[in-house]
Specification:
single chain; alpha+beta; Beta-lactamase; five-stranded antiparallel β-sheet; two-stranded antiparallel ribbon; 13 helices; 7 strands; 8% strand; globular; binds glutamine; Glutaminase; EC 3.5.1.2
């Protein structure tokens, strides 16, 4: 495994022409495009890492996996999926077009921004502090960080440049899809996107999801297997947005990308796993090539 990871990192790290860092959020534009790391955690808690696997970056949309793991446990499946669909769409992550065109105006899935904003609004805790506290706590338990923290400069950068997310949230409110205070919901959404992580920590998140919600490092059951099954299915069908079909065919395992550069892949694959890993990467990566 170590050899395989080292080889992947060696082959992929120089491919900096294959993409660019996200620049629509000013703080993300400062990311080092040369950083590249990969990590794997297996079901027994054994870990391997290569490259810049300890470098901190932000979860961004990978945080949608955490909020989706949290909301149905607190609100029940029906409450969540009455408000958010489970269908794949071939639209970009922040698209507003279909949301307005379709009737009812229900967000299509919890992996796109509109769906994640609805999921955040459904968290039952009172106020921004309690809601983000619950997300941070689950995030730490899923990925075995002692604490998960918001990277303040990224959070502020998101908050003050996020016209599109604000437009989505206010539209959702106008059609009755949001609960609670719209600005509080947005604030929790921006904060959770700005949670700091590393490829190594993400690989534990992936392993916990692959192990039906049991963290293989702590042995703790963090999320119910039924919820995890739903999360994995939505990662498979919608986790890479309009690239999800292509990724499913090429790689064949669930995945969630984020504009911070991470990809989290909870793989239960057995045979053929190594060839999959060769074509992409497995566990988690910090890649200069982001796909929105
Ligand atoms: N915080 C980002 C946004 O809402 C997350 C998007 C992403 O990672 N695809 O624009």
């Amino acid at each position: 495994m170590q050899q395989l990871l080292d080889q992947i990192v060696k082959e992929c790290a120089p491919l900096s022409e294959a993409g660019h860092v996200a620049d629509y959020i000013p703080e993300l534009a400062k990311a080092n495009p040369k950083s590249f790391g990969a990590a794997v955690t297996d079901k027994n808690g054994k870990q391997w890492a290569s490259g810049d696997a300890d470098e901190t970056f932000c979860l961004e949309s990978i945080a949608k996996v955490v909020s989706l793991a949290l909301a149905p446990q607190l609100r029940g499946f029906d409450d969540v999926f009455d408000r958010v669909g489970r269908s794949a769409i071939a639209d970009p992550f922040n698209s507003i077009m279909r949301l307005e065109m379709d009737s009812p105006h229900r967000s299509h899935n919890p992996m796109i921004n509109s769906g994640a904003i609805v999921v955040v609004s459904l968290l039952p805790q009172e106020g921004v502090g309690a809601k983000i506290g619950a997300v941070l706590e689950l995030c730490a338990a899923l990925s075995v960080q002692k604490t998960a923290d918001v990277v303040e400069r990224v959070y502020l950068s998101e908050k003050f440049t996020s016209d599109r997310n604000r437009a989505l949230a206010y539209f959702l409110r106008s059609v009755g899809s949001l609960e609670g205070d719209v600005e509080d919901t947005l604030d929790v959404y921006f904060r959770m996107c700005s949670i700091g992580t590393t490829a190594k920590q993400l690989s534990v998140l992936g392993a916990t999801l692959a192990c039906d919600g049991r963290n293989p490092l702590t042995g703790r059951d963090v999320v119910s297997p039924t919820v995890v099954r739903t999360v994995r299915a939505l990662m498979m069908t919608c986790g890479m947005y309009d690239g999800s079909g292509e990724f499913a065919v090429d790689v064949g395992i669930p995945a969630k990308s984020g504009v911070g550069g991470g990809i989290d892949t909870p793989s239960r694959a057995g045979r053929g796993w190594q060839s999959t890993a060769r074509r992409w990467t497995s566990g988690a990566t910090r890649s200069p090539a982001w796909r929105p």
